[in-house]
Amino acid sequence: MSETVQYTIAEPSLEQLVTSVQPLRHDVLDQARLVPTDKTLSVEDFLHDVIHRAAFIEGVAVSAVRVDTIATNSLHAMIRKMATLDGYSKLGIGSKVLGTAEEQAAQQGVRNFWLDARESAIPFFEKNGYMSTNNTVTHEDGVLKYRMFKRAT
Description:
By secondary structure, the protein is an alpha+beta fold. The chain is built from 3 helices and 7 strands.
């Protein structure tokens, strides 16, 4: 795959969430889950203080992220459901999607970002400024994850 791949980053429409973003999340993130999840969107995907960003190539999502504020008017947010298709990894697309979502959250007052990363994703998040908190958590999907933290810039 060429390093000059053309893509656009945008807030996905409801139709794009259903037809492109959620299937991307399911395909990428379910590879590591011990307990399969269903392919439907969750209630949290529709909350008003949730930020969705995705990179699209010819209308198909190749990378996506969701940012959840921990409480209304909160200074804290969780990075959730970060996923990039394998063929588009290492091109900087995921970093751009993440950065765009973080920037939007920071404009809304978020000052601290938290996430729970799979072990294989730690280098990606470290490259994007996240630091390990040396805490682990096992999610309901059975996967051990590592808590990471970043201050907004």
